[in-house]
Amino acid sequence: MPETLAAYPPLGPHWQGLVVLARGANRLCVRDPADEAACLKFELAAHERTQASLRERLRRAWAQRWESFGENAVELRAYRRLHARWGEQTHEVFAQCTGLVETRWGRALRCLLVREADGQPARSLYSHLFAGTAYSAGALCAEVDRIEAWLLARQVPLFDLNAGNFVVTDVDGHPRLTCVDGKSTLSGKELLPLSRWIPHLMRRKIQRRAERLRQRIRRALAEPSPAH
After folding, report:
1. Which sign, positive or negative, has the C-alpha torsion 166, 54, 201, 226?
2. Sheet of 38-43: strands edge to edge?
3. Burial 29-43 (b: 16+ CB within 10 A, else e)
């Protein structure tokens, strides 16, 4: 869920009076006005969403008819499945989802807000790459290494490894990445999800996606890839 708003239909820093933290093609994330430690994810109306492929348009149509196909419901199921298997280890990589809630603005997915030590919301990795960061490419890539190793060790098919789906917090002067959108562990773009079913294919896909993210970090921060 990229932090930048420029590539999407304009919403601005507020949405229905709520402070926007981030937005993606189909959802946006806002501060929870009732709980400073939480955020709310809302599924956008059709006119606020980006153009999409036929497959994505079908998915959106199904979600309008059956809530279980909606991105919030999918993300909550994905989180609960991870937590049922890995317990508190889940939070070594993933932000915590607490449930679907009814609000005056509509139904939303409530999650714990990943925050810095001073209480401010953590910035996305995308923001660190394109709006300034205190961290080196090497330090951020080392965190991608950690995420990759965690996923491989547990065979967790998180394939949507992009800079907008991670936020960065500071831990003793070092960056710490947290995934704030784990839908892809449960739902992806493959018609026949062989990479979820076959461990060897899963491993290779995680490795490819992690390397692609490392390359993007190095390009954005203008640091060369390490020699092999």
Report:
1. negative
2. 14-15, 18-23, 27-31, 38-43, 106-112, 97-103
3. bbbbeeeeebbbbbb
pTM here is 0.83
Most distant pair of Cα atoms in the chain: their distance: 55
| Residue position matching structure tokens 């990589």 | 93
What is the topology classification, in CATH, of domain 14-112?
A: Phosphorylase Kinase; domain 1 (3.30.200)
Q: Which two tokens stand for residue 65?
A: 């008819």
pLDDT per residue as tens digits for the range 39-56? 999 988 765 555 555 555
Half-sphere exposure of 59 (CA within 13 A, CB side): 20
> Rounded to whole angstroms, how far apart are CA atoms 87 and 83?
5
**pLDDT value, residue 11:** 47
With cut-offs at 50, 70 and 90, classify the pLDDT of residue 14: confident
Domain positions in the chain: 14-112, 123-220
- Per residue in 102-124, pLDDT (tens digit) is 999 999 999 999 999 999 999 99
Cα dihedral 161→81→29→217 (10° resolution): -10
